[in-house]
């Protein structure tokens, strides 16, 4: 039994389009996609629905951000211009988010290393040995 999807109007099935998209991804993007695909396959139905809802919420949030940006800039775009704007916005926004994430990771590492050094210095410094307090003199026993 052939399990391939029927060809679309271009004679190319969904698997062909999927393969083409995978080929266009960078190696890191491809690995990220494959890791997510494995997680998706292991999810139960409830987890999948939750994930789909979060993804839908994120798409709606991003659509609103983009719409607000277009409106805030006072742009009047036709459908083609809007499509290009949305693609560019997403690409450039993703680059900014990745850059900020890298910067925060580096800063976090640096600050954690500084903190560890401070803690090491604090806890490896010789501690003064407590000197025992002289024993209090006992009152002499009365005869």
In short:
The protein is mostly helical and 143 residues long. The chain is built from 4 helices and no strands.
Characterize the structure shown:
The chain has 143 residues and is an all-alpha fold. It has a domain at 78-123. The chain is 71% helix and 0% strand. It is built from 4 helices and no strands. Residues 1-6 have low confidence and may be disordered.
What are the salient characteristics of this protein?
single chain, 4 helices
Q: Give helix % range.
A: over 70%
N to C succession of SSEs: HHHH
Query: Quick one: overall form?
Result: elongated
What can be said about the biggest beta sheet?
A: none
Structural class: mainly alpha
Q: What is the tally of beta strands?
A: 0
Low-confidence stretches: 1-6
Estimate the strand proportion. Answer: under 5%
Residue-averaged pLDDT: 85
Span from first to last CA?
113 Å
Gyration radius (Cα, Å) is: 31 Å
Report the total helices: 4
Strands, helices and their partners?
Elements: H1 14-24, H2 27-42, H3 45-73, H4 79-124
């Amino acid at each position: 039994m052939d399990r391939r999807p029927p060809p679309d109007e271009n004679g190319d099935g969904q698997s062909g389009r999927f393969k083409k998209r995978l080929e266009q991804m960078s190696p890191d993007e491809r690995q990220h996609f494959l890791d997510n695909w494995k997680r998706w396959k292991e999810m139960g139905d409830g987890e999948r629905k939750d994930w789909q809802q979060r993804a839908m919420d994120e798409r709606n949030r991003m659509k609103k951000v983009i719409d607000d940006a277009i409106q805030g800039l006072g742009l009047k775009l036709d459908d083609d211009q809007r499509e290009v704007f949305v693609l560019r916005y997403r690409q450039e926004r993703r680059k900014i988010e990745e850059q900020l994430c890298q910067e925060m990771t580096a800063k976090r590492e640096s600050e954690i290393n500084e903190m560890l050094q401070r803690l090491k210095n604090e806890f490896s410094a010789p501690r003064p040995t407590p000197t025992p307090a002289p024993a209090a003199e006992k009152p002499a026993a009365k005869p």
